[in-house]
Amino acid sequence: MKLTKTLVVLFGLLVTTNLSSAISATPPKAGARCAEAGKVQVSKGKKFTCIVKSKKLVWSAGVTVKATAPVLPKPTPIASAMPSQTPSPSPSQTPTPQVSPSLSPTPNSSPSPKVVVDFNPLALKAFEEVNKFSESPSKIRLKFEYGENLSSDLHMGLTKYTSKAAAIYSRFLSTPKEITIHIYSEKDMEKYRDNSVFQLDELKFWLDWYTKDLSISDSAYGHPGHNYRSVCKISKPTDCTGVSGEAGALYPSRATFNSLNYLNRSVVPHEMFHVIQDYFLYGSGGSFYLPQEDQDLSMPPTFREGGAVFFALAGGFESIEEYEKGITEVMNWMKKDFSAELKGLRTANDVVNLFLRLERLDRKSRTEYIMGAALHEWLIANYGLEKYIVLTQQHSYQKKFSENFASIYGVTLTEIYKLAAPEILIRITSKL
Ligand SMILES: [Zn+2]
Q: For residue 296, how far is its CA from the centre of ligand 1 (angstroms)?
């Protein structure tokens, strides 16, 4: 993840405090752990509220309620949120938003509610579109380099998750590729010397933090396998010979797969998606120095990072529930630093303007992670995965992304922002 220092720090910090999402899948019971303060659920005729007690989120003592009035989530107003104007690339790609009946709470169903899952039907459609291809034979040959000090549990979990994502990412490739994934801890220092992915000076903050604070077991730092800009800046750009086909992540040596939240489990597939993007951005010769502005013109941050967030979560996780937990954690992370900006989204027009700002390389806002992920849900649900694959394959440092996009989608990027904005507004504000 290419982040500013503040965001990088935040990424790790957020993750240390947000373990709650893994425990929302059981029916409420007084004193049992719950996921979100203020959340109300009815179970067996009693209403439970998620409260903070001794710094823990737990269900309150239940209050008896009439079984005829179960507290259920409101259905997502998907129909009214659809843009009145539909994208019209070709008849077969006309958006057909469908609300799966199983997603809408039905008042006549049993009074004991099922697990509350809060996600947008559009996200489900995009998730399913991506996972249609999870069974296809993978063209990616994954090689893992694990540090000796990492737990075997983390090793197994990340391998499984990354392999599932690789099978899906291989849809982007026409020829087989090998990708090497480096996963180390702060105790594997020697691995960072002369490493093709990591540079010791860039990692210093993380290595020190993981070494000093032994309570950190839920944090991650990742990087795709091309050169750091800072390294390139201190030498002549032409000296920066690139690598390709490699990605890496750093985890605290205490981490187990279960101690990581859903966002941190997705860091390796996130970086691996950048590797896929880079095959096309740089072409067959491998990566080389590209000024940030050129990178952004070839693919704006909403696609670069939004794509990596979306595909890491949709490609890696098995279920929409896990995907949604990942999205919620991305949102929580963004809210910490860009709360005012996200809360300022009141109208569809505000959403369009934020997308335009992000496209115009406004680095004051780094909301591209969540805004981009939401845009990907919308784009893939409405236009399918195949078109998106062509878009990625045809992007290059020699081409302007906006022109590439318009020629493939038959509609300009700005028009897409306008079409998507009403639903993205709902998607984002529902998580504020
Ligand atoms: Zn990234």
A: 13
From ligand 1's centre to the CA of 61, what distance in Å?
43
Q: Cα of 373 to ligand 1 centre, how many Å?
A: 12
CA gap 88, 81 in Å, rounded = 18
CA of 154 to the centre of ligand 1 (A): 21
Backbone angles phi, psi at 396, to 5 degrees: -160, 155
> Which residues lie closer than 8 Å to 427 by C-beta, 6 or more apart?
120, 122, 123, 374, 377
b/e code 12-21 from CB counts within 10 Å (16+ = b): bebbbebbbb
Find the 41 Cα to ligand 1 centroid distance in Å: 36
Residue 255 Cα, ligand 1 centroid: separation in angstroms? 21
C-alpha 268 – ligand 1 centre gap (Å): 10
Residues 26-79: tens digit of each pLDDT: 566 777 776 666 565 656 656 666 666 666 666 677 665 433 222 223 222 222
Global pTM reads 0.72
Q: How far is the CA of 264 from the centre of ligand 1 (A)?
A: 12
CA of 116 to the centre of ligand 1 (A): 30
- pLDDT tens digits along 201-225: 777 888 899 999 999 999 998 877 6
Distance CA 199, CA 223 (A): 10
Long-range contacts of 368-371 (CB under 8 A, 24+ apart): 368/300, 368/301, 368/302, 368/304, 368/305, 368/306, 369/305, 369/306, 369/309, 369/330, 369/333, 369/334, 370/309, 370/327, 370/330, 370/331, 370/334, 370/342, 370/428, 371/302, 371/306, 371/424, 371/428
C-alpha span between 20 and 179 (Å, rounded)? 33
DSSP 8-state secondary structure symbol assigned to residue 390 = H
Q: Cβ(409)–Cβ(89) under 8 Å?
A: yes
CA terminus-to-terminus distance, the chain: 23
Ligand 1 centroid – CA 238 distance (Å): 24
